[in-house]
Amino acid sequence: xxxxxxxxxxxxxxxxxxxxxxxxxxxxxxxxxxxxxxxxxxxxxxxxxxxxxxxxxxxxxxxxxxxxxxxxxxxxxxxxxxxxxxxxxxxxxxxxxxxxxxxxxxxxxxxxxxxxxxxxxxxxxxxxxxxxxxxxxxxxxxxxxxxxxxxxxxxxxxxxxxxxxxxxxxxxxxxxxxxxxxxxxxxxxxxxxxxxxxxxxxxxxxxxxxxxxxxxxxxxxxxxxxxxxxxxxxxxxxxxxxxxxxxxxxxxxxxxxxxxxxxxxxxxxxxxxxxxxxxxxxxxxxxxxxxxxxxxxxxxxxxxxxxxxxxxxxxxxxxxxxxxxxxxxxxxxxxxxxxxxxxxxxxxxxxxxxxxxxxxxxxxxxxxxxxxxxxxxxxxxxxxxxxxxxxxxxxxxxxxxxxxxxxxxxxxxxxxxxxxxxxxxxxxxxxxxxxxxxxxxxxxxxxxxxxxxxxxxxxxxxxxxxxxxxxxxxxxxxxxxxxxxxxxxxxxxxxxxxxxxxxxxxxxxxxxxxxxxxxxxxxxxxxxxxxxxxxxxxxxxxxxxxxxxxxxxxxxxxxxxxxxxxxxxxxxxxxxxxxxxxxxxxxxxxxxxxxxxxxxxxxxxxxxxxxxxxxxxxxxxxxxxxxxxxxxxxxxxxxxxxxxxxxxxxxxxxxxxxxxxxxxxxxxxxxxxxxxxxxxxxxxxxxxxxxxxxxxxxxxxxxxxxxxxxxxxxxxxxxxxxxxxxxxxxxxxxxxxxxxxxxxxxxxxxxxxxxxxxxx
Length: 760
Prior knowledge:
It holds the Pfam family NorB_cytochrome_c-like. This protein is mainly alpha-helical. Helix content is 67%, strand content 3%.
C-alpha cells in the first residue's frame, strides 16, 4: 500500500480539526461540570464554617508556597508528601469516627470493640454518602468537628513544620494561610465523596479509594479497562500491519554516499548554535545532582547524609524538597528544550548550504535571552516560595506553583517569546527549502512541530490562582501531556527525519512521508489521549471512555517509532558508517520511548489500575523512562552529531561520550527497574488492601523494605550522575578542538545540500 504525501497531509488536516472540536467541547464542559465552589459551608446550626472566598485563597496559598511539589492535589504533583485530597478525606473520616465514638460511647474510636466500631463507621459512611443540589454546603456536627481538627493539623504540619514529614518551618507563612489551605484541601475532599446532582458517584468518580467514605472504583473503570485491553491487542496488531503495509523506505547506508564529517563545512550560525550545548549541559548536571538529593530526602527527610547534625547546616530549611523538586523538573525541561533549539538551528545549513545574514548574531541573542529567562525563572521560584515577592506579583515574577508550570508568568512569556524567535530564525535558515517545497515538506514539518510546542504552551495562560482547581488542571494538562504525547513526539520524528536526510540515509521525499505518517498517528491519538488525566480531577464522566480508548491507541505511533529505531540500528551497524555514536543515542531514544511511554505508560493508564495507582511511584518510573529515555537521549544524540561535524575527523574522540551513554542507560535501568517500580508495585498493593492515603503516607515510606529499595536506587542514580559528569567534562575537552567556521559559505560547502535542494 503506497500513500501519497498529499493524501497524508489531507488526513492530518482532518484529524487536526477533529481534535480541535473534541478538545474545544471538552473545554466548555470543563467550566460547566467543574465541582462548585459554594458561597458558604455551614454547620447544622447555620453558622458559617468557611466561605468560597477563603477556599479560593487556600488554592492561592497552595500555589504560592509550592505545595504541589511537596505533595499532590487530586493525585497530581509530587509524591514525597501526602496527597492533600486523600489526606484531608482520610483525616475527615478519622475525626468524624472519633466524634461519634465519644458522643455515643464516651471513648475514642480505636478503643471500641469491633461491633461498636462497625456501627460508628456506618454512620460516618452514611453522612459522607450524599449528593449536592446547589446552594450552601451543609455539614453535620461531626463534619464541622473534623474540619476544625484538620485545620489545626495543617497549621501544625505546614506552618510550624514537621521534619518527620520533610516539612520545613514556615513552609506556609502564617497560621491564617495554613487554615485557608486546609479549607481548600477539605473542599477537594468534599467533592471527592459527594455525588454529582442526579449522579451515582462523586465529582472525582469516587477517587481516592477510601472505603470509610464509601469511595471505591466505579463499574466504568472496570468496563473500560477490559475494553482497553482488547484495544491494546488490536492496536499493537494494527500498528505492525500499518508499518508492514505502508511503503516507507528504511534508512540504508549501502550503495550511497554518506558524507564524512570532515567533508562538511561548519558555518558561523552552526558554531553559534553549538553554544546552546554547554549551557544545556550545565542545566543537565544541576538537574541530576538535585535528583540525587530528592531521592535521598525519602530516606533522611531533614538532612543529607548527616550533614545537618554534624555541621549544623539546616538542609531542609535552605533547600526544601518542594524547591529542589521544582528546580529538578524545570531544569529537565530546559536542558532538553535548549538542546533541541540548538539542534534545530544547527541542521538547516546542512540541508540548504545557506547562511542568512547575521544569523549567528541573532542566535547568540536568542541564547542570551534564554539564559536571562532561566536565571530569572529559577530565582523567582526561590524568592516567591520564600515570601520575598508580595502581592499579585508572586505568580508573575515568582513561582506560579503548578507542576511543570512553576515559573512566574513573566518568565513563561519569555519562554514563549524564545520559541517564537527560534521559529523566525529557523524560517530564515530553511528559506531555500521552504520556497521550493510544498506545505507538507520536511522543512515545514520542523516548523509545525516547533510551533505546536509554542501553541500548546499558551494553554498555560488561560487560568489564574483563583481559577477552580478542576479547570486549572484541565488546562495544565494541555501543556504537560500534549507536549509530551503530541508536540514532543512530533518534534522527535521530524528531527530524526531531518537528521537521516542530512546523512543521505533517506531522500527528502521518503523522510517527509515517514514523518507525516507518524505525525498523523501521534496527533490522532496523543492529543485526545490527554483525557486520561481528567478521570479523577472533577471533570465529566465522558472522559473515562474517551481517555481509555485514545490512551490505548497511543501505542500505535510508538510501535512505528520502535520499528524505525530498529531500522536505524541496522543502517548504522556497519563499521564503516561514520555516525554510529549519534545513532546509538537516537536508537536508544526510540527504545526507551516504547518502554517508558508505551509499556509503562499503557499499564498505569488502564482506568482500574490508574484508580489505585494515580500519583504513586509507578508514575515516577513511567515519567523518568519516558522523559529522559525518549527525549533526553534524542537531545544527547543530536549533541553528539553536532559535535562530530564540528571537530576535525582526525581529532574526534567519542570514547567519553560512549562511556557516558552506557552509564546513563545502565543507570536508568537500575533506577527504574530495581528501585522505583518495586516501590510503586508495593504502593499499589497497599492502596488495594488499605486506602490510597495509606499508600502515600510517611508510615508506608518508612517501612524497612521500602527504605531498602530507596537505598537500592543509589547505584542507578550514581551512574546517571557519573555519566553526566563525564559528558560535561568531555564538552570542556572538545571545546579546544572545534574547527573554524567557513567565512563565505555556499551550497558547494555542504556535502548534502545540493542533492537535497534538487530532490523534488
